[in-house]
Amino acid sequence: MLLTDDIGKIKNIGEQRRSRLNKMGVYTVLDMLEYFPRDYEDRSVITPVAQITPNSTFGFVARLADKPTLTIKGRLKLVRARVCDQTGQIDVVWFNQPYLKNSLQPGKDYWFFGKASEKYGLLQVESPEWEAYVPGGKSLSNGRIIPVYPLTQGLTQKVLRGVIKQTIDETTEEICDHLPEHIVRAQQLVDRRTAVRQIHFPQSDEAFFKARERLVFDELFLLQMRLLQLKGIIKKKQNALNIKNTDITPVTDALGFKLTQAQDRVLEDIKKDITSGYVMNRLVQGDVGSGKTAVAVAAAYLLISNGYQVALMAPTDVLASQHYDSIGRLFEKLGIKTVLLKSGMKKKEKDRALEDIRLGLAKMIIGTHALIQDSVEYKDLALAITDEQHRFGVEQRKTLESKGISPHVLVMTATPIPRTLGLILYGDLDISTIDSLPPGRQKIDTYAVNTSYHSRMYGFMEKLCAQGRQCYIICPMIEENEKNDLKAAVEYTQELKSVFKGLNVACLHGKMKADEKQSVMDGFYSGDIDILVSTTVIEVGVNVPNATVMVIENAERFGLSALHQLRGRVGRGSEKSYCILVSDSQNKLSKERLQTMCKTDSGFEISEKDLQLRGPGDFFGTRQHGLPEMKIANLYKDIPILKRVQQTAVECYKKDPMLILPENRLLKKKILDIFDKNEKNLGL
Ligand code: ADP
Ligand code: MG
């Protein structure tokens, strides 16, 4: 049997099982082998019957003493059998499986596995799994550590165990080591064949760990190797732009502040990229408020001053408009025309903008997803910037790039990730980090309180507003029911209007029309509105330095990264700022999140913690990043293995980038097998 064969070829897989397995994404023999257990159960201990005690689960081998009896009590059908071994006897019972009366035969030995309990002073094992015992024979489900698989309707653990065992036995010859032998040896890995067998049916804990280590290593190694290759290819993409002017002082002078050392350093990276003759693919990560916009603006200026166009894509209308206002104003001083493109614009306005873009009159183009629609034609797009990249899929980033002829790419994100993970998640990007905040920022005091603090909190806000400051109040978003959210935000605003009598309270939510949103935001920017009640539409990027209080209601509903983003809306000026997290939740994890917020203001620490609490799947949203789904590796827990992988992969790549050496023949084949079909998903 070949690994590429259809699972229909496996014994015991008929049409029905085949289609059920297909539903689980299992099509080929290889898929079947890589249908890894989600858990294990240790059934290696055979307990003497006399040692069975109530309220625990036991595996034992025992002989049926008598024919089972069937008792019917109303709707309950109870099958009971007495079984014994050399040490004693015990009752086993099953509910509503009357046919078992005839399936189990007196005088025969069986494996049982189930939970013991005491009923009316009588010890019994309830609904145990059972299987005929063959002396000296091996069982797949008993007397060993057994795999527990993810299930779909109509497939049982027993069936899967049998089918997978069958598959392993018939393919041992086929499973080969694609890693070069010197790596296997140096890393002290078990061979792949052993690993596959042991991951399904481990002989011991130790064997399991070695098997898993090997398979995780393989999975991460292949991915890392492919990313290195792709990065190598992308790096070589020539860029024929003509960059004569590299003086960006006009724009940095116009900014009105001195760039921090961190900002300068990142700009140097960007300058180097842009003048290298190759296409730039750079990710700039920096905590909220670290000043990523200024870096983007300076980079944009660099290309615009050489006659080219630059596009900046933001994830929300609010953020796009804000960028348009601040960047537009700045660029106007420098004689650069900026246009805004977003959904909900008047047709006339929009056509004008499109025309300006097409003719190249507009040099700086700012917008939302509208920037990547077919109707947008750029004259000479040379730099594509995406702000708050974690909100965009890789696909969208790529579409924007495709609007120019190999434009440079700059991606900005406030979701910091550990470096090791960055290499995987943004494998195709070079990374620069803005690792310090602009001077003069004060620590944001963060408090976690319950709803009984509301009136004190309102008093505090009133006092600050009287001093001229502004406040945000964030209402929770419950995704399943947006209507209720709106109601919550709108009604809460009404309530607050009567609390804050002399102040201007306004509401902002995602369902408002673009111009309504804009006028509320304008009111807040200008200081007209004192208190802004909002759903999370303002989560990313919004910059109103005069706002110094961030209240988050039902704070337990937010993940750590979102809380950190929200908190980042304050503390942007020189005034002392506060963040108040309101929650009545008693949930342990929620409390832990809120405590983390009170303890630290470092985005790096917070994202570490977030990863730890949520796991990488939820944190990164695999789909968003277009990463292939991991079959066995866990990007967070397996960082130690990932580190080894990265070192090894880089060495291997340096020695033989395109994998043409004989020792790498199988490796190359494997990479092509996996990634050819996946390349599109990877968006590379
Ligand atoms: P983020 O990195 O979250 O996108 P922004 O770019 O919005 O941060 O910048 C946050 C605030 O810091 C803005 O008000 C911006 O004008 C200000 N800022 C940025 N760089 C500096 C600097 N070097 N010195 C002083 N203020 C700065
Ligand atoms: Mg920003």
Strand proportion: 15-25%
**Rounded radius of gyration (Å):** 31 Å
> At CATH's second level, what is the architecture of the domain at 444-600?
3-Layer(aba) Sandwich
The beta-strand count equals: 21
List each distinct ligand once.
adenosine-5'-diphosphate, magnesium ion
CATH topology of the domain at 444-600: Rossmann fold
What portion of residues is helical?
Answer: 40-55%
The low-pLDDT segments are 621-626, 680-684
Amino- and carboxy-terminal Cα gap: 34 Å
Determine the number of helices (DSSP H or I, runs of at least 4 residues). Answer: 23
CATH first level of the domain at 444-600: which class?
Alpha Beta
- Helix and strand composition category: alpha/beta
pLDDT averaged residue by residue: 87
User: In this structure, how is the largest beta sheet organized?
Assistant: 7 strands, parallel
The CATH superfamily label of the domain at 444-600 reads: P-loop containing nucleotide triphosphate hydrolases
Strand arrangement within the widest β-sheet reads 11-12-10-13-14-9-15
Shape: globular
Could you please describe the fold and organization of this structure?
Among the domains are: 45-143, Beta Barrel (OB fold (Dihydrolipoamide Acetyltransferase, E2P)), CATH 2.40.50; 250-276 and 291-413, P-loop containing nucleotide triphosphate hydrolases (Rossmann fold); 444-600, P-loop containing nucleotide triphosphate hydrolases (Rossmann fold, 3-Layer(aba) Sandwich), CATH 3.40.50. Strand 18, helix 17 (514-526) and strand 19 form a beta-alpha-beta unit. By secondary structure, the chain is of the alpha/beta class. The chain starts with 14 loop residues before the first helix and ends with a helix. It has 23 helices and 21 strands. The strands form four sheets. The protein has a seven-stranded parallel beta sheet with strand order 11-12-10-13-14-9-15, sandwiched between helices. The chain has a six-stranded parallel beta sheet with strand order 16-21-20-17-19-18, with helices on both faces. Adenosine-5'-diphosphate binds at residues 257-260, 263, 286, 288-294, 414, 438, 541, 543, 545, 572. Adenosine-5'-diphosphate is lined by residues 257-260, 263, 286, 288-294, 414, 438, 541, 543, 545, 572.
